[in-house]
Amino acid sequence: MYYKIENKESEVYKKLHEQRTKEEQMELKNTASIIEKTGLNFTNFFGRIGQQNFRRVTSYSGFEFTEPEKVDLKIWKRLKEHPEIFVPNTRTKLGREMQEFLSNGLEGSRYDIINDILGLKSLRSFTFPFVEIIGEKIILYVDDQYDLDDKDIIEITKREFKELRQLH
């Protein structure tokens, strides 16, 4: 189900805004940490982008570095299917350390924190909740098994959700 929240004074707006702002800051810190750890900039990556995973931030498993000639092959190896992408070489100690850093050394959140803010119970099967700040509004997508009963959370159509999201 698709929703928007416009009342900036509501408790749910404040909590979701604070949480999403933290996650956006985590994304920036994680990118900076990767560049610092690897000593290389990257243009593309392999992984799961954004909040559609258990940690609610982008997860990384490989990179297209801007200077591939500087890549240390004791740490990285090329993907056979996509030779421009480097992934940690887990056959070496340094590669395993890099894999550990990418898996557990970056900041993240919890997938169920949005459910906690909204007062929703966890389900066996679920869809990852999606929250985005668009100007002065918050848009929200949660599993359609839930029915949000809060006067400040306004149900909207998928079309309106997509239109608002394009403004971001």
Give structural notes.
- The chain has 168 residues and is α+β, with helices and mostly antiparallel strands.
- Helix content is 33%, strand content 23%.
- It contains 4 helices and 8 strands; from the N terminus they run βαββββααβββα.
- The chain has helices spanning 11-38, 93-104, 113-118, 158-166, and strands at 2-5, 42-48, 59-65, 76-78, 86-88, 130-134, 137-141, 153-156.
- It has a 4-stranded antiparallel beta sheet.
- It is elongated and about 55 Å long.
- The two termini are 20 Å apart.
- The model has no long low-confidence stretch (mean pLDDT 93).
Average pLDDT metric: 93
Report the order of strands and helices.
EHEEEEHHEEEH
What is the number of beta strands?
Answer: 8
Strand order of the largest sheet: 6-7-1-8
- Estimate the strand proportion: 15-25%
